[in-house]
Amino acid sequence: MTSKKVNQIRFHLQEPFSLRRRQLLKSLIVSLFQAHGKPLESLDYIFVSDEFLLDINKRFLDHDFLTDIITFNLAEPDEPVVGEAYISVQRLIENADAFNATVPRETHRLLIHAALHLCGHQDNTPNTKRKMRALEEEWLSTLDGVFHVKQNR
Predict the structure, then answer these.
(1) Over the Cα atoms of the chain, what is R_g?
(2) Whole-prediction pTM
(3) Which of 44, 99, 148, 151 could serve as a FRET partner for 27 with CA atoms 20 to 30 Å apart?
(4) In the chain, beta strands by DSSP E
(5) Which bin fits 10, alpha (ψ -120 to 50), beta or left (φ > 0)?
């Protein structure tokens, strides 16, 4: 993997939030796109407030409810992915607590979730939701192994 591809993944913090090991996370996301044979031009993860994400949900999806993440592919069909993923920091933290996960683990799950959507995976039916969760767990396990190896060096 080239560092150019890793540098096309950016994290923007519009809310106070700690995101560690960014280069490692970027490398995993690039690997996910490569494993799915999906070209990636750029991907921006934007960490925002509930209010900001609710406004996006209303304006672009016509949904009037809070959500943890909204992902957009801005590229033309058959072009490399140009993605934006908006993540609610408040939902992320509350979901971590509700699912008995750490905040970093829930963050990683959402980063992977967005990338999987941009690779074409859906979660709008019970069956596709199960498949999405299984893929998330698979990539989280990969990340766990990398973090574990890196931490013991």
Answers:
(1) 15
(2) 0.91
(3) 99
(4) 9-13, 40-48, 69-73, 81-88
(5) beta
Output the tens digit of pLDDT for each of the chain's 153 residues: 445 666 799 999 999 999 999 999 999 999 999 999 999 999 999 999 999 999 999 999 999 999 999 999 999 999 999 999 999 999 999 999 999 999 999 999 999 999 999 999 999 999 999 999 999 999 999 988 776 544 332
* Amino acid code (one letter) for 115: A
> What b/e string do you get for 23-47 counting C-beta neighbours within 10 Å, with b at 16 or more?
eebbbbbbbbbeebebebebbbbbb
In this structure, are strands 9-13 and 40-48 parallel, antiparallel, or unpaired?
A: parallel
Provide the residue type at 146 as one letter: V
CATH for 3-151, among 3.30.1600.10, 3.40.390.30, 2.60.40.10, 3.40.50.300?
3.40.390.30
Cβ neighbors of 39 (< 8 A, separation 6 or more) are 33, 80, 81
Domain boundaries, the chain: 3-151
The three-state secondary structure class of 87 is: strand
Q: How far is CA 13 from the centre of its chain?
A: 14
Q: What are phi and psi of 15, to 5 degrees?
A: -125, 150
